[in-house]
Design a protein that fits this description.
Strand content: 25-35%
Number of strands: 9
Distance between the termini: 24 Å
Radius of gyration: 20 Å
Number of helices: 4
Strand order of the largest sheet: 1-2-9-8
Oligomer: single chain
Helix content: 25-40%
Length: about 180
């Protein structure tokens, strides 16, 4: 059995942004089901901010984000014995205002077939065909409060960096109201 002590769940680093909001809410509702009234969660969120700042972060001059995403192809090459030519792909990060999310894509720069030996399959890519890699949803403080409430939590306090880029939101379980 569980101890009688208060529990704290940590979900840091704004990883929640990689979940579609409905999936995030379902996950938090599952966490809520396994906690008791008064238990807490500390959740990291990336805040919505100037679109140009977001675009620069995902399309940085040093190519850090591009390298990070191209590493997916490197790993497929190594671990699944594939023949992706990384020079034939381009990374692009774009903001989708309808979703409130940055999207990362790799675009095939030409028509090409890529064989993945471990799957015994070849895949065809059209020129400029996008391969969607990730969503990174951004939140407002109101979005965070709505997510907490819909999941069975109340926001106790938000801790932010000095630039208002990120929030670690402290939530408390409220069982009696649900």
């Amino acid at each position: 059995g569980r101890s009688g002590r208060q529990q704290l769940v940590l979900f840091l680093g704004s990883n929640i942004g990689n979940f579609i909001p409905a999936q995030a809410q379902n996950m938090f509702r599952g966490v809520w089901r396994n906690l008791r009234d008064g238990d807490r969660a500390l959740v990291g969120f990336d805040l919505k901010k100037d679109i140009n700042k977001l675009q620069l972060a995902y399309n940085d001059r040093d190519g850090i984000t591009s390298d990070f995403n191209m590493n997916l192809l490197r790993r497929i090459n190594t671990e699944l014995n594939a023949q992706f030519d990384l020079d034939r792909f381009q990374h692009v990060g774009t903001f989708n205002p309808r979703l409130g999310a940055m999207e990362s894509h790799l675009f095939s720069l030409q028509e090409q077939h890529v064989r993945i030996e471990a799957l015994d399959k070849a895949f065809f890519f059209d020129a400029y065909e996008p391969v969607h890699l990730e969503y990174s949803f951004k939140y407002t403080r109101k979005d965070i409060a709505s997510m907490a409430a819909a999941s069975g939590f109340d926001v106790i306090k938000n801790f932010s960096d000095s630039g208002e880029n990120l929030v670690d939101s402290m939530w408390v379980v409220r069982k009696e109201q649900c």
